[in-house]
Amino acid sequence: MSLPVAPDGLKPHEVERGNGRFNPPIPYMILEKHNEHDPDRKPNTVKVTLSTGVESRAETWDGTGTKEQFLCHMMTMRETLVGMGLFLRHEEAEEKLRDENVKLQLEQESKQFADDAFAAAVTQQDKHKAKADVKKSAKSIKQIKDAITAAEEEKSAAMATIFSTTGNFFRGDGKTPWDKIVTKQTERDDPWIDL
Q1: Which of these, 19, 94, 158, 173, has the minimum number of CB atoms within 10 Å of its CB?
Q2: What is the C-alpha to C-alpha distance for residues 118 and 122, in angstroms, rounded to an integer?
Q3: Do 23 and 15 meet the contact criterion of CB atoms below 8 Å apart?
């Protein structure tokens, strides 16, 4: 049985380290595909402002490279988006929407209680008081529904900012797959169309 041949560029002493009983894994780095054509080429970058106010540069993906390089780019891009505070803004909008929905549910229960009190009122004075409570609850429900609409718009705007900012990290041929993802996520047809 023959031993595997070391890749070009590695010296025998890099392979022969260890206690002599076995050879350690061969250190091997994948060559960058896009630098073969133009070794002086520098990656394109985008200037971003982090949530702390610091300006930084992030690399863009141009569609050339290995799958591992793409995954590294995606992880770096996600860290940049987190540093920009975009995910935090989206989470805050979701939390605000959740809180407003809870308020709406509580106010609707309060209105139902006021409606029951109005129906059960016997004297004219009790009816006026119950009617005022019903009007107050209806007004509160309307305000909360307006707040829910504003929170939904804020959440949508935060997600749109994430999508559009993510699109800035792609250039040329690298942007086409991202555009397909955005189209599939945002302009979705009827999910039952293929049935």
Answers
A1: 19
A2: 9
A3: yes
Query: C-alpha angle 51/57/59, rounded to 5°?
Result: 120
Q: Residue with structure tokens 């803004």?
A: 89
DSSP 50: -
* pLDDT one-digit tens code per residue, 96-148: 999 999 999 999 888 888 888 888 887 888 888 888 888 888 899 999 999 99
Residue 27 CB partners (closer than 8 Å, separation 6+): 10, 14
pLDDT of 160 higher than 60: yes
Task: Give 1's pLDDT tier (boundaries 50, 70, 90).
Answer: very low
Those residues whose C-beta lies under 8 Å from the C-beta of residue 110, and which sit 6 or more positions away, are: 137, 140
Burial-class residue 28 by CB neighbours within 10 Å (0-12, 13-18, 19+): exposed
Provide DSSP, 36-62. TT-TT----EEEEE-TTS-EEEEE-B-
Task: Say which amino acid occupies 76.
Answer: T
161: three-class secondary structure by DSSP: helix
pTM: 0.64
